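Weekly sync notes, structure subgroup
Attendees: PM, AL, DS (notes)

Item 1: joint prediction request from the bench team. They want all two components modeled as one assembly rather than separately. Inputs as received:
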Amino acid sequence: MLGRSLREVSAALKQGQITPTELCQKCLSLIKKTKFLNAYITVSEEVALKQAEESEKRYKNGQSLGDLDGIPIAVKDNFSTSGIETTCASNMLKGYIPPYNATVVQKLLDQGALLMGKTNLDEFAMGSGSTDGVFGPVKNPWSYSKQYREKRKQNPHSENEDSDWLITGGSSGGSAAAVSAFTCYAALGSDTGGSTRNPAAHCGLVGFKPSYGLVSRHGLIPLVNSMDVPGILTRCVNDAAIVLGALAGPDPRDSTTVHEPISKPFMLPSLADVSKLCIGIPKEYLVPELSSEVQSLWSKAADLFESEGAKVIEVSLPHTSYSIVCYHVLCTSEVASNMARFDGLQYGHRCDIDVSTEAMYAATRREGFNDVVRGRILSGNFFLLKENYENYFVKAQKVRRLIANDFVNAFNSGVDVLLTPTTLSEAVPYLEFIKEDNRTRSAQDDIFTQAVNMAGLPAVSIPVALSNQGLPIGLQFIGRAFCDQQLLTVAKWFEKQVQFPVIQLQELMDDCSAVLENEKLASVSLKQ
Amino acid sequence: MAAPMLRWGCRGRRWAFARVDGGSCHRRGAPTGSTSNQIRGESSVAQQPLHTAQKTRKGEHKWAAVVGLEIHAQISSNSKLFSGSQVRFSAPPNSLVSFFDASLPGTLPVLNRRCVEAAVMTGLALNCHINKKSLFDRKHYFYADLPAGYQITQQRLPIAVNGSLIYGVCAGKKQSQVIPKTVRIKQIQLEQDSGKSLHDNLRSQTLIDLNRAGVGLLEVVLEPDMSCGEEAATAVRELQLILQALGTSQANMAEGQLRVDANISVHHPGEPLGVRTEVKNLNSIRFLAKAIDYEIQRQINELENGGEILNETRSFHHKLGCTMSMRDKEGKQDYRFMPEPNLPPLVLYDATSLPAGADPQQVINIDQIRETLPELPSVTREKLVQQYGMLLEHSFTLLVMDVKNRNPRAINKLIGLVRKATQSRADPVMIKEILEKKLSL
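Output from the run, pasted for the record:
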């Protein structure tokens, strides 16, 4: 049951094959079993069971709220949840219990979804590995999959199997691990530079980034206000569409949402054929660092479309090479601004020093933020200084406009959807990942994903195939602004073609106790 | 002539006009002592009138003072500029604070329509050009009463620019001539008010009340076209009347609804402008005039004694009657202005640009607001003069009356005095009508 799609489970609930409470308990049990993945920061067991009870009543009375009624979901811990601790994986917000729900959370609850818990992330969503939060790194469930283990046996490494566990990618790694390990059917992530798509690719999931302005950001603790969107992680495209249908729409509390008409319920047509479609391949995305496996899959995917009758053309996004630097300037500037509110006065961590306000601020912020956050704040403040503003911030805004125009031009030339890699390679082992610092990693890993955030476009990562190591590789589709439905339609067709294998975790369940032993060793190696 | 009536009517009150004559540039009857600045004015409508110090030493150059003002007026609205919490004076501490006001993470600003209308009304009343597109910015600094660590304001492109404010200056023999003076308005911008800090030095702590945090403010920037305390005070008084007539702000200085910061410098006529200081925390018209005059004289004294003026911020200490440097400002603050990413540009329409089928709830039509502007004080005064045969200076006085003071005895007495002063030219019934109409606003 836990391996089914959202749609299937929803049908099962309606038919009474399983009750919301049973479903909830199964998920809770699995969450406990997979605790070593460190996917969840908070498991809201009581809340979820209560919601399940209410859902059950509704089903008994034949008054289900819809496809999401009674469905377990998880929410990244940078979404405000009323009465449930929201930490952003930071010391600054440890113990912070918000008094309100983020709009997207509220919408899910209004549809009857069960909130299983808050998932782990990089601190304040800064990172591409889900390794830099204060609650420790998240482990990729594929580390324990049969597919990966079998390949590993062929190349024996250290005796301790668990020391080579893989990262989930980030920053929404906890949400990805939660869905990938079947503890829930969908999870909310956030996407600022690829934070939903990146872990989706590494965990073999569908990671959807909606158009900026389609889904409300009210209650999403911001990283970069002009680029953040709530993201959706599911095991198949249809499920993502169901969740999007519940979330999309204008919100008076978020002035950056638009009144674009979306047909409700959000149904995805099944594409009969793709002969009318034009797929664009951006040539600048063929970078030397791209792994040969990913490149090969990318090529195969393009061939697939062509062989099925679609037009596949090369396009140029000439300002691609500037996007990393541009993103860095704009992101750190907004971060410096957004983090200014964390001073320990109204909420969150406050240090013990009370000599003066300044001293208190300084100590609170030094204690509350990790190096990554502080580094970005310092950089951002530098770029915002009066003498630097024109040369950095304004220039970056101009470059951003050029990057956005690149996409506009590509779409205007007849392209419906762009096809690119999501990541440079499959997931890497944690010990290898931490050899480089957060900034370096982010710059490397965001390369295919962050230009999309700068242009505010919708994009989705679809799992395509397993690598030689038995690990998932995903490819990315990018659509026109507010053509999310069309984008998902194409993605759904492609998903059907590639038939990505289901992760085999039975061994994991059996080996649980063994892995729990090894988990103690892995958690020692936290940075700083 | 008019003197007895004026003094009676306005004892301790704000004056609508300044006296500029051979006498002193300060309130008649009020003690000024050493803080007074004896400046003789010229009866002219020059933008930057030149003043000469009466007490010139032999062989000394003349001095000219230049005064600009930044005025913050709290917008009269039910809720705050970007959140739905209520706007009320004297509520229990921290009882009018929404999640957004407390800067809880994840909250977003939502623009208050009434505040925008207030800004447009005020801009139109002050002859400004209303920008059909204006932008919001973040101004960053750390202070306990600024929960978000930044204030949302309009630095790049404010809602209204290039206006003017005309105020009346009494001149000539016996104060019978009223000369209009103009001060240019650089801009009007919408911005958030901060919370309040109460410093409890006894317990080494500061108490923060966020009731005021996020209340909408109109910042009105007056160019340095004024030259002394009285001119500045008069201009502010006129602005108060306008804001009160429009209903956009109650502009009560005592309640903190109107705050004025003054930028002051002195120079020798014909030479470049001097270094300016900023004087803050002036919370009454009287102190405003006093502080400016003190500061002008202080700067003159300093320069005449071979010292120099620092570009600094000073606060006025009314008990001592002087300005003092605010030492906690080390060097110049860099506010790291940045566009506010959560608020799209504010777009206003007029009759020609209004999109067809637009939801009236969602758009603001400048022309419509212009048509529904209430009568401005200058127009009321003009009416009094033209229709009721009143003397101009009396019209100023009538409009000066505090609308909160509904003392019928005072009104009758005033009617009597006006009749006497106008030698019964003005019909008492009409005067009473005007007064009651004015007081009912």
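Discussion: Chain B touches chain A at residues 99, 102-111, 138, 140, 142-144, 147-150, 204-206, 208, 334, 336-338, 341-344 (CB under 8 Å).
Action: AL to compare against the crosslinking data before next sync.
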